[in-house]
UniProtKB/TrEMBL annotation:
Function text: May be involved in recombinational repair of damaged DNA.
Gene3D superfamilies given in the database record: P-loop containing nucleotide triphosphate hydrolases
GO terms, biological process: DNA recombination; DNA repair; SOS response
Domain RecF/RecN/SMC N-terminal: 2-508
GO molecular function, one term: ATP binding
Protein name: DNA repair protein RecN
Classification via InterPro entries: DNA_recomb/repair_RecN, P-loop_NTPase, RecF/RecN/SMC_N
Coiled-coil region(s): 148-229, 328-362
UniProt entry tagged with the keyword Lyase: no
Family: Belongs to the RecN family.
Source species, domain of life: Bacteria
Keywords: ATP-binding, Coiled coil, DNA damage, DNA repair, Nucleotide-binding
Length: 550
């Protein structure tokens, strides 16, 4: 409930702070006194947009603060979702700076205007004649039926399953889209994959082939150089091996004359062994090297195949070609298995659809069952509000598709006069009729839902005394389970409040300002008497005012 409202430097308000209690509170005051300003200030702290015109003194900031007791509203999930500190006593604050910048806070934590508006919608329901168009909204009408049918748990289960259905249907659509696109590319991807598989790609193969190609292409030069090397090492007269052998013999006789000679001899021996080994290897290589035109052609063909593949796939390495091959293999495999995946996903969608359908049917049955009860309640209450001939034609019919609140189409038609044709509310009901219908529906909802603080803004405009008396009684009854405010010009409604506040203007040298105060019993009598008979208080007006309060 709204516990306190503080407004500084807003419109005609300098500084106002007022505390409220639970139950039914009426707010009265002369036309132009500032009742709408008070409501405007509250709307600002509930998330309405603002501008510099809101500031009374444009050199100072405007601050509006509202304190709410939210212990019964089950709003912890909202606070957690928006990373806000939860407090049973929560304070919403709005600041409009002279620069025009606006700031919003919840329990001193900065929030966006959207977050403040979303929270405000759950704290206060501001209802005026121009807002009765909500009554013509199909979702709101369905909400009324669901409240009477106690469909909240069914709707929660339905929405959970509907979310699953939407997710599964989205996945199915992706698979089907993939199949449509993939079918176009499948043959081409298969061709590319076959090319890469035929190449028998493996890491390092390009380097090996290029090396082999160089050897096969230069056989004559290789054989010539190997032969020359072998000749240098093994010539009978000048060969390196023979000369090293002679050197070894020459130093062999010096090994006994000291370690230096022995060391030198060992080094000569080592060089001779290595040189002799090289000579043997040269001889073997000579025997292994031979011209092989056929192999050269094969190697050249494999290299050209690699170069062509690299050019086609815009790469310069076998490793990249292998990666492309694996990617193509996955695409081809995915297309090959897509039909089974689609079938599997379709079965999942069908199974969830049956579950969603079952919940939707249960919700629909509940709605249909309470239509007679709702019709009766509407007729009885509206009759007491001067609309005895008003009747409704309410039908719930199956829809072709799932909606966020079930699988029903709702026909909510109205006739204000006996014998008149039924029509949509927004087309056949007047503003006054819509106000009374909305009040009736809100009073019914109050019995079934934990509604937020209700603020009725001159909803009783244009109705007669007896009807206004009944409207006041309905709001009074609603206040038994919730906090209700009524901004009114009618004494019959004002008198029904447990508490009455008066909004008034004061004119001083520095300007005009709006104030609000809670009236005592005697002040209420005078205020009601003025509302009944004007400023000149007559005994009959005072007596009537006292009678209304009693």
């Amino acid at each position: 409930m709204l516990a306190n409202l503080s407004i500084q430097n807003y419109a005609l308000i300098d500084d106002v702070s007022v505390s409220f209690s639970n139950g039914f509170t009426t707010i009265t005051g002369e036309t132009g006194a500032g009742k709408s300003i008070l409501l405007g200030g509250l709307s600002m702290v509930l998330g309405k947009r603002a501008d510099l015109s809101s500031l009374k003194n444009t050199a100072q900031k405007c601050v509006i603060e509202a304190e709410f007791d939210i212990s019964k509203y089950q709003l912890r999930p909202f606070f957690e979702e928006n990373e806000l500190d939860y407090e049973d006593t929560t304070i919403l604050r709005r600041e409009i700076l002279p620069s025009g910048k606006s700031r919003a806070f919840v329990n001193d934590s900065p929030v966006t205007l959207d977050v403040m508006r979303a929270l405000g919608d759950q704290l206060v329901d501001v209802h005026s004649q121009h807002q009765t168009m909500q009554l013509t909204d199909n979702d709101f009408q369905m909400k009324v039926l669901d409240a009477l049918a106690d469909n909240s748990e069914n709707l929660t289960a339905y929405m959970d399953e509907l979310d699953k259905l939407r997710a599964a249907s989205k996945e199915l659509q992706k698979l089907e889209d993939f199949q449509a696109d993939a079918d176009k590319e499948h043959d081409y991807n298969s061709f590319l994959l076959k090319e890469l598989e035929d190449a028998k790609l493996k890491e390092g193969m390009q380097e090996e082939l290029e090396e082999e190609y160089e050897q096969l292409s230069n056989v004559e030069q290789i054989m010539e150089q190997l032969s020359a090397g072998h000749q240098l090492l093994n010539d009978e007269q000048l060969g390196i091996v023979g000369r090293l052998t002679d050197l070894k013999r020459a130093f062999q006789g010096l090994t006994d004359f000291g370690s230096d000679y022995k060391s030198l001899y060992d080094r000569i021996q080592s060089v001779l062994i290595e040189t002799d080994d090289i000579a043997s290897e040269l001889e073997q290589m000579q025997e292994g090297v031979e011209a092989d035109p056929e192999r050269l052609e094969v190697v050249n063909g494999k290299l050209q195949q690699l170069y062509d593949l690299q050019k086609k796939h815009h790469t310069d390495s076998v490793a990249d070609l292998i990666a492309i091959r694996e990617e193509l293999a996955q695409k081809v495999d995915a297309v090959a298995n897509i039909e089974s995946k689609i079938k599997e996903k379709q079965q999942e969608v069908d199974a969830i659809t049956k579950t969603v359908d079952a919940w939707a049917k249960k919700i629909s049955e509940g709605r249909k069952a309470v239509i007679p009860k709702l019709n009766e309640r509407l007729h009885t209450n509206l009759a007491s509000l001067g609309m005895s001939a008003a009747t409704f034609k309410i039908e719930v019919n199956p829809s072709k598709s799932f909606k966020t609140n079930g699988k029903d189409d709702l026909m909510f038609l109205f006739s204000a006069n006996k014998g008149s044709n039924y029509g949509e509310l927004k087309k056949v009901a007047s503003g006054g009729e819509l106000s009374r219908i909305m009040l009736t529906i809100k009073s019914i909802l109050a019995e079934y839902e934990n509604l937020p603080t209700m603020m009725f803004d001159e909803i009783d405009t244009g109705v007669s005394g007896e009807i206004s008396n009944r409207m006041g009684e309905i709001m009074q009854q609603m206040s038994g389970t919730m906090q209700v405010f009524s901004i009114t010009h009618l004494p019959q409604v004002a008198s029904k409040g447990q508490y009455q506040f008066k909004v008034y203007k004061e004119e001083r040298m520095e300007g005009t300002s709006t104030h609000i105060k809670q009236l005592t019993t005697d002040e209420r009598v005078r205020e009601l008497a003025e509302m009944l008979g004007g400023k000149s208080l007559s005994e009959s007006a005072l007596a009537h005012a006292k009678e209304l309060l009693q």
